[in-house]
Write a structure and sequence with these properties.
heterodimer; A: about 450 residues; 7-stranded beta/alpha barrel; 2 domains; five-stranded parallel beta sheet; B: alpha/beta; Rossmann fold; seven-stranded parallel beta sheet; 15 helices
């Protein structure tokens, strides 16, 4: 029997409130609680709760023949706890069935994997701990934010102990090859890679209710037919999408819930297909070839690259300004700062600054709470300016107070790591010192003594 | 194709954007093989005639004995009443203008049936009478020349356009650069409103400079949406290219407002935003260039807020000085309460100055690489100014993509649309 891997991404960022420059230094709360609560509650009602019910029913009826996979970001989990605890309960019920795999990812749905290996690792660990505490399951397969993937990221993830990863079956990656096999990472052959079949995934995620589509309406029969007509030698179809597809992007009126129930049923009954989770796929299938990915890819837009988040000057400036703080934050034990550090890293903030949609995709405009990317940038930079002031104040105070355990640990950590790391590590290290130096003289002294 | 066009002003004698727009449009039309005869109330002799043949209305002889004219005159005399309005205040001193015109009225009144009338070419006290006379001239010209389409710009010329249509039977296009609601808010002048409405009712097509204006035309003048077409304005390349690098004489950043200091342009919002920025950053200077009936009030407000040391008034600027002002600016702000189009942000962007514009402007419909704020939202306006002064990436994005965006707004393509409208009427 051939395998279907059905995976849903669940993510909600903490959207920022309108934060003016005159708030900088005066007000340290950055989030639009009203919007966040409203949106999370709406999507819980329209999507998470009813869709979970459908999946529970499928599991109830077909047992181990039906499997499903989720990744839930840390910021989504926090908002569920805060605004819709029933969503957490619902996912717990799914977890209890044993037919659901939860994937590892960065806690804040961030792009940190692109530039800071230490912070990347910390976030993945924080996320894994959260999932373990909540569902009693330790993730064994990894998917990066927005399926961002490269050889370098695969290596970092492999070092964290994960042997399975998900990414996009992007054309620039595959060329003539098919996404419908299990692959491995060429530089790290023990790392298994599952590739998204974007054609069949987007038939559901983007086109399902599009009446201008010549295949509309998409019925379960038609869809199963398409799956059946996949070359019989190809033994795996990966359907990866946002969970919000079900009931939010594709509204209930479009019949998406009926479809979600019907197509797995027909596949299972046909006895030609079985549902598997990524870790099962990695264990049971043989990889056919290696994939080599020197430049990062993602599942976004036509380009399948990073330009949705880091494509223009605004995004670059915001991104570098944020990660200038990562060395101080690496040693930070302040709970409030840590929380904001997590929330501000969410890739969504950079996505809102994308200017590509001036010419093409209105997909971007659908997701952004801002009128224009420029407003998004302005607001984020104001918030970041305040955050930076707080972080630097914290760093200065830490050294003055001679909190020895933290500082020595931090210094040791900083000195231990720089083997073959990217050059960005070193300048930020000196930055810590520079900050301390410029703020207060006794500070630098204390620092040296500690060292 | 030949077009008989009625305007009120033509470069270099301009008081607002109307003359500039007419010039750009006629130049563009020439490229599409449209021959334009442009009628202005008063020609000074030094107008640019590269694109048009300019007709001075003052030189036209009207034979009042002709029953056609007489009949038309009888129809339009009512327009003389209620003429104590200043619809479009020019740079000249308000007081002076009124007294000057009072003299003229005394001198000229009772000479309606004389053969020639000396138009002042200004907006003023006896405007309604000028409008009425201009209509007569329109009829006279229409009777004596060859053309295919009549095109009238703004209400001042609509009566002339309608008269020309009546005499010649040729199709009429009226062009709405601004409505009475834009100029006066809700305290609009009913006579002006009526002239505008009649002109649009009589016209075969109405061109509006933005969808914002189009909506006003449809909703407040009840004009058939079918015949109202939006043609966004464009901008000509700069005349004084060498000034692009004009040296700045102060080390602070400069934030500029440039326009008439009137209710419509929202100068007070600029001042409130300036105050908010200055509270936090003293390293900025704000400049308000232009004059208008609210100028004194604005000066008092600036003094009251105690920001005079960083807030400057330049008075009216023209030609080269406008370009120089742009070249010195780091941010340009157009906080208009109501702006049918608003060409000045395009001029600023052309000079590589990032701009903040109000959402209540027609130009916001065609620009992406600008900050758009509600005119009343001074917090957002201050924040946008702050961002442009402090976050380099924003500046560089605006400069790179902004000038590209403006360069794509060519009169050549705008006038193509106008030429298409003419053709649809033949």
């Amino acid at each position: 029997m051939r395998s279907i891997c059905l995976y849903f991404q669940v993510h909600q960022p903490f959207r920022l409130r309108t934060y003016r420059f005159f708030d900088i230094g005066a007000d340290h709360y950055y989030y639009d609680d009203y919007q966040n609560r409203r949106i999370v509650r709406r999507i819980a009602n329209d999507c998470y709760i009813p869709a979970n019910e459908v999946l529970l029913a499928l599991i109830g009826e077909y047992g181990s023949a039906f499997k499903v996979t989720f990744s839930i970001s840390g910021t989504a989990i926090e908002q569920f706890k805060k605004y819709t605890p029933e969503v957490i309960e619902s996912f717990k019920r799914l977890a209890k069935t044993g037919n659901v795999e939860f994937l590892a990812e960065t806690y804040s749905h961030s792009l940190v994997g692109l530039n800071d290996p230490d912070e990347f690792k910390r976030q993945v660990e924080e996320h894994a701990t959260t999932i373990q505490e909540l569902f009693g399951i330790t993730p064994t397969a990894f998917r990066n934010t927005e399926l961002v993937y490269s050889n370098g990221i695969a290596e970092q993830v492999f070092k964290m102990g994960y042997k399975t990863m998900l990414t996009e079956g992007a054309k620039q990656l595959l060329g003539w090859k098919s996404p419908n096999y299990l692959y491995f990472s060429s530089p790290h052959p023990r790392m298994r890679v599952l590739l998204r079949n974007y054609q069949l995934s987007d038939d559901i995620a983007f086109r399902f209710s599009q009446q201008s589509w010549n295949e509309w309406p998409l019925t379960a029969e038609k869809y199963v037919n398409w799956l059946d007509s996949v070359d019989p030698k190809q033994d795996l179809v990966n359907l990866f999408m946002d969970y919000e597809t079900i009931g939010e992007h594709q509204k209930a009126e479009s019949g998406i819930f009926g479809f979600l129930r019907a197509f797995p049923e027909q596949l299972i009954r046909s006895q030609k297909w079985t549902f598997r989770t990524p870790s099962e796929v990695a264990d049971e299938l043989q990889p056919v070839a290696g994939i080599d990915c020197p430049h990062a890819i993602s599942w976004a837009d036509e380009e399948r690259d990073l330009t949705a988040w880091l494509g223009n000057d605004l995004q670059q400036e915001a991104f570098t300004s944020l990660y200038k703080l990562s060395k101080i934050m690496a040693t930070c034990t302040d709970a409030d700062l840590h929380r904001d550090w997590n929330y501000l890293q969410a890739s969504d903030h950079f996505y809102y600054m994308c200017t590509k949609w001036f010419s093409d995709g209105d997909v971007h405009q659908y997701f952004t709470p801002y009128g224009t990317p420029y407003e998004a940038f302005l607001n984020y930079m104001n918030v970041l300016a305040d955050f930076e002031i707080r972080v630097k104040e914290y760093a200065a105070n830490q050294v003055v107070a001679e909190v020895i355990p933290v500082t020595t640990e931090a210094v040791a950590k900083m000195n231990a790591i720089p083997d073959g790391k990217s050059p960005t590590v070193k300048p930020s290290k000196t930055k810590v010192k520079a900050v301390a130096d410029s703020d207060k003289k006794p500070v630098s002294k204390a620092k040296k003594e500690v060292k | 194709m030949k077009v008989l066009m009625f305007g009120w002003e033509f470069p270099p004698h301009i008081t607002g954007g109307l003359g500039t727009a007419c010039f750009g449009l006629t130049k563009g039309l020439l490229k599409h093989g449209v021959d334009v005869q442009f009628v202005v109330p008063k020609a000074y002799g030094d107008e640019s005639q590269e694109a048009v043949r300019l007709i001075n209305a003052s030189d036209v002889t009207v034979m009042m004995k002709d029953p056609v004219f007489r009949e038309y005159w009888n129809q339009i005399t009512y327009m003389e009443i209620g003429s104590n309005l200043i619809p479009y205040v020019g740079p000249e001193d308000f007081q002076q203008m009124v007294s000057e015109n009072t003299n003229t009225v005394v001198e000229e009144s009772g000479r309606v049936f004389s053969e020639r009338f000396q138009f002042s070419g200004k907006y003023g006290h006896d405007l309604m009478e000028e409008v009425a006379r201009y209509a007569l001239v329109g009829a006279a010209i229409a009777a004596n020349s060859e053309f295919d389409v009549i095109h009238a710009h703004d209400w001042l010329t609509y009566s002339a356009g309608v008269a020309a249509k009546k005499i010649s039977g040729k199709p009429l296009v009226v062009h709405m650069h601004a409505t009475e609601f834009d100029r006066s808010g809700e305290n609009y002048n009913e006579n002006v409103y009526e002239i505008e409405r009649k002109g649009m009712v009589e016209a075969d097509r109405v061109i509006t400079v933005s969808n914002l204006t189009r909506n006003i035309v449809i909703e407040r003048y009840h004009i058939d949406p079918e015949k109202v077409i939006t043609v966004h304005n464009a901008v000509e390349p700069p005349e004084h290219a060498e000034l692009q690098n004009a040296e700045k004489r102060v080390k602070e950043k400069i934030v500029t407002f440039l326009g008439r200091i009137t209710f419509q342009k929202g100068p007070e919002y600029f001042i409130e935003a300036a105050c908010k920025v200055l509270e936090r950053d003293n390293n900025v200077r704000f400049v308000m260039a232009g004059t208008g009936d609210l100028m004194e009030k604005m000066i008092r407000r600036v003094a009251k807020l105690k920001i005079s040391s960083h807030f400057h008034f330049t008075g009216f600027l023209k030609g080269e000085n406008v370009d120089r002002m742009f070249a010195m600016s780091d941010v340009y702000v157009m906080p208009s309460v109501s702006e049918p189009f608003g060409i000045s942000p395009l001029e600023a962007m052309r000079s590589n100055v990032p701009v903040v514009i109000s959402k209540q402007s027609g130009v916001a419909e065609v620009l992406n690489h600008v900050m758009k704020v509600d005119f009343w939202d001074v917090d957002a306006m201050a924040d946008a100014i702050w961002g442009l002064l402090h976050y380099n990436a924003l500046n560089s994005m605006f400069i790179t993509y902004g000038s590209e965006e403006v360069n794509n707004l060519k009169w050549e393509s705008a006038s193509r649309k106008v030429a298409d409208i003419y053709e649809s009427l033949l």
